[in-house]
Amino acid sequence: MQMEVLRDLVDRGAGSLLLLLPQNFSDIHGELAQQWRELERSILSQKIPIPVYLSLEEETLGVIHDSLASSAAREKHSTVTASLWHILTGYGYQMISEDQKEAEVVKDSHVVTLVGKLAGGLGVQQRLPTVMVVAHYDAFGAAPSLSSGVDSNASGVAALLGLARLFSRLYRDVKQKPRSNLLFVLSGGGKLNYFGTKSLLEEDNDDLDSLIHSSDYIICLDSLAATAASQSCDQSHDESHDQSHDPPHSLTVHVSKPPKEGSKAAVMLDLLNRSFSQLSSGPLRMVHKKIRLSDDLLSWEHERFSLKRLPAATISALCHHGDPRRQSMFVNSDHIDVEGLTQNVAALADGLARYLYNLSSLLGTEGEREGGERMATLPTVSSEYVSAWLDYLASHSRSPQLLTEDHPLVTGLYQAMSQSLQDVTKLVQRPEKSDPEFVLYHIPQTTLHAHKVKSPIFDLFVAVGVALYLCLWYSLIEFFPWSAVGFIPLPLKVKSSKS
Amino acid sequence: MRQIIRAGVLRMRKSLTLAAELGSMTLFHFANCLALTVAPYFILYRFSGLNEVPWSKCVKSAVGYVATQLVKMLLLATAFPVSAVQTERDDLIRVALTCTVDVIDLLGIYVCLTKFSARYENSAVKTKVLSTVVGWGVTEVVATRVVPLWVEARGVEFSWNSLFTGLDANISLVYLASTVALLWMWSRPDFNQTLLPLLLSLLLSLCYSPLFLYLLSFSFSPTPSLLLLTRLGVGLVTGFLSLLLFHGMSNGKTKVQ
User: Where is this region: Disordered (chain A) (predicted)?
Assistant: First the structure.
């Protein structure tokens, strides 16, 4: 519906378009949010010949909008005199933006990827297997400075930081140290076709390289906290429609290739599956989607790894990669189920811990019990920690062009990782000079000036008025019998003439 | 849904008249305001028989105006320095001071009237008064109205202000004409001294009307249009009284002669 309105406006010769976004995105819910996201997507995907401005709905803008709306409503049904009166008394508004320059290309565009690890015990580090947890931390939306990407992928980042903190406690105790390395990656450029991940795999760093290539499994986290309404992609959508409301929907594992029976990947997924059914919303649902090389963009982060033949999967609450919530600014912390996210983190931690401590072979009751004992020492996930990170990330826009090397948010993430992980490195990754993978533009921000203006007809009226007034002046000077005033019989006059 | 419609579309006018190209108030509007401000003076000059008098006489009054303003400025700057912190009370004092200093204007007009027009002793009384009014008034209106109007014309925003400025200039003309007529009367040797209190009170009320208006706006905060109307009312009353006096005297004089 919105797109039609837009096209109609362009046809009618609108100079530009100003979209007023609600001041607080938490005010928009459900269907409305979906409509906003659709509008956002259509604005992004279509060529619009006029400039489009986005602004939060401020008081002044609200006043202007209301007055315009009421005058538009009045125009619809009014008499000639009423509309004339309106022309005389009403105002029009003229919007002028401060500068209308084209968006500039960012000169030194780069993304920053943060890598940190927990080295396993008993054995040479390089020979130990590795489990990687990856989440990208940038966000995307129609207006870069308004894109805070709460679900995609602040939830993933918060989950990763929660996991890192939790496992750092396990790894601190030498006796408890699992015989695997854990590698945590906060990748930049996730919305730039996972550029950070791509560069990470091409990184000329032997240590890192060997760690990555010895990985048993790579778990990518993306949008772990979305609530409801993701059933749409469910195959059995029609059947489960009635029940779709009652259970909190389970997470989805996206893989490019189903793991072979008995492989480490299968074990890992099996363990995660069990943990999720016990601790979180239910068993994981596996979605298998082959990588289409002909596509311009990869759909999930794990595909970067899968392309290098590394076993990887993305865990997400969204079951389709094209979900508009992944690339929208109309998602905010009110749409997020922090409780669910914490549960998901706990389940992830549980599954990972089971895998790291190699509990897969002990599946009997004995194993369960022993596992239970071990698990007793597994610290619980602090939901405050997770939600604090979520809030912090949600309050900052995280468009890729903003997240430079020394951006406070990047520094903050770096410090958070340094607190729990070893050898945290900040990888600054630049696109190739000759054939850049992406081009970033500076965020075009401008100040709009709204000027009250009168219609030309009003000026015409004023001109007529002025002309009439001047005629009056002329006749006063030319024809008014000034001296006649002097003949008004006044005692004063008599006196003065006598003197 | 409502919100979407609401947020929907704020149409911006593509090129609303000339304004977009000029980046200023519409030329039309500017012309209107200018005409309203200046044209009365022109009409006065053109149609009151003043154009038969050499216009250097008006120019002399104009020079007189400039000189008087310089003297006023010097006096204000040296004797009444502006304090850094402005309170409302300070503002009141400032307005009162300005009005007091405006008495110097009366002196300037008096000098213009008596010295500069001395050579035209034989010309009509009306011409004498009017040439001073036009010379003094045009300079004043250019300095205090047209220049601000020009500056304001650079903004796009419409405001009633510029129209009010034009109307105000017209009222000022009435004030000035009354003042000059009163001063002329005072300058006459055959002036009836019994009328002096009335004349002085009229002059003072003309001079201190800004203070009166300031007090009015201070205590009632009326709309600008209401303030303008008040100013017009004061101007009309004093103007009419001055006119009565003036004609009484000039007619009486001709009778005597």
Answer: 232-259
